[in-house]
Specification:
The protein has one domain (25-83): Arc Repressor Mutant, subunit A, CATH 1.10.10.60. Helices cover 76% and strands 0% of the residues. The chain has helices spanning 2-7, 11-22, 26-43, 48-54, 60-71, 75-83. Helix 4 (48-54) crosses helix 5. The model has no long low-confidence stretch (mean pLDDT 89).
Length: 84
């Protein structure tokens, strides 16, 4: 709603246009960007708990679930694969 107001359009119009351009809803786009950032942070040595809270997740378990749904594996394995 805030994004639509800042753009000077109604929410449904913004949603439709955004999806036409990016192929995703604004929410899905933001989630994907946040999870890509998480993957990058883990590869740089951040731990799962720090990453979860720094990116605004309510708990490490909520973050791990979202990460697994997006990438197909738990964030712990991302970190281990990079350290191997």
């Amino acid at each position: 709603s805030e994004l639509a107001a800042n753009a000077g359009v109604c929410r449904s119009k913004l949603h439709k246009c955004f999806k036409q351009v990016y192929g995703l809803t604004p929410f899905d786009y933001a989630r994907d960007k946040r999870l890509e950032k998480a993957k990058q942070m883990l590869r740089q040595g951040e731990n799962v708990t720090q990453t979860a809270f720094q990116l605004g997740y309510s708990s490490p378990s909520h973050f791990a679930k979202a990460f697994k749904e997006h990438f197909g594996y738990l964030p712990l394995y991302c970190k281990k694969a990079e350290n191997a």
